[in-house]
Amino acid sequence: MIKSILPIIFIALFISSCEKDEGTTDIYNEDLIFTRSIKINIPSYSYISGKGTQIFVRGDTSYFSPVSDTLSVEPVFAWDTVNVALLHIGIFTEEIQVSQNRIQNSNSMIWAWHSGMESGSDGYVKYSDGISVSLGEYQGSAIPLIPLNKYYWAVWAWNPSGTAIWFSSRQLTFVVEDR
Which residues face 124 on adjacent strands? Predict the structure, then answer.
């Protein structure tokens, strides 16, 4: 009797595990832009600006500092790869506000890159790989950032069906160097 019930129990457990909503997670990270997601790590890195200057980005370590990084008018963004198909990076003119797992102030996004674009890749994107955004709509080629302005940026990624955020980074800030 027990031998005949065990396969049924195994099948029931397997089916119930498959039915779990692929958007749910028990993870909570209050310092990420999407608090119910897995952290996208942004390590320290450097790049050469269009002027030939080496620019240092502190990555996640700058999150705890009141001092913002200083980046070029066309920065480079790097992070640890997450190996998912649906990624997005955004630059905002205001702090990113998320409520109910949605960005509430998407109108303050001025630049974006996503994994469907021709250039850039998971873990490394140049500013020129992205596109300008105005009032939440993609506009065209990226326009250089304004010197001395402060900006906010983050990376996030969806589940395979694009219905839930699985990964996100902390919100990081930078100021654009004076030309």
Answer: 78, 121
Q: Where are the domains of the chain?
A: 25-176
- pTM, to two decimals: 0.83
3-state secondary structure of 45: strand
CA 92 vs. chain centroid, Å, equals 12
CA distance 130 to 112: 5
CATH class of the domain defined by 25-176: mainly beta
Over range 135-153, report the average pLDDT: 92
Distance CA 165, CA 155 (A): 11
Counts for the chain of helices (H) and strands (E), in that order: 1, 15
| Helix (H/G/I), strand (E/B), else coil: 168 | strand
